[in-house]
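Let us practice reading a record.
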Amino acid sequence: QVQLVESGGGLVQVGGSLRLSCAPPGRTASFYAMGWFRQAPGKEREFVSVITWTIGTAYYADSVKGRFTISREITNNTVFLQMNSLKPEDAGVYYCAASANYLRDWRVHVKNDYGYWGLGTQVTVSS
């Protein structure tokens, strides 16, 4: 089972920025889509953003539109999440997720459709 590897989390002030990155070990696996979910204490893991690998179609949760940008680096098999204008409600553990299978547009937010996950990286937003 491929374990994705995230990096880039940390502590930032409200309004600040962070950039997360994620790649499969050795950057050798290939997926249909890669993206990010997050989980705050006591809450369900929720969809943040995903990008399809070949075409680069990006999807965002309404709560992050206009503030977060997902991108991918095909040569290094790496996905990035640029997070700007961070809010306290953005805090949580951010998990990288990937699907080797085709995802229909209306299911990109469904976490059970992703077969590969990372261990998560903590994002803390201080006010």
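A brief commentary: The mean pLDDT is 94.
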